[in-house]
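Running low. Invent one:
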Amino acid sequence: MKQLVQYFKTLSDPVRLRILQLLAGGEMCVCELEESLHMSQPAVSHHLRLMKKTGLVLDRREGKWIYYSLNGHKLLAMEEKFDEMLASAIRARLSTGLPAAPVKTEKGPVCARREAAKANTQRKTS
């Protein structure tokens, strides 16, 4: 769970999401990212450093240039963890007879647990 929290914190910044989009097109050096993002080298490097720390991007040095690329394995692993977490929670909810999402009525959302308890009570008294 801690890893997922850090992953989403890192992705919570629009600049880092844009960097992911750009790197999805292939490896880029910092100067190319600077140009695409209209940001200074230190600002771009700061975002890349955070993304590298979380494992979302990989880097390689070629002379004095550093090239960045997506860490596809890490991104897929985090996606799987997130899916597992949500899928297990939804399966657990459905197994208790509760709907997967809140029930909405004319008066607004209805508490599914309260409605399920009411239905059980009505069945027992009928």
Notes: The chain has a mean pLDDT of 85. The radius of gyration is 23 Å. The first strand starts at residue 28 and ends at 29. The CA atoms of residues 37 and 84 lie 34 Å apart.
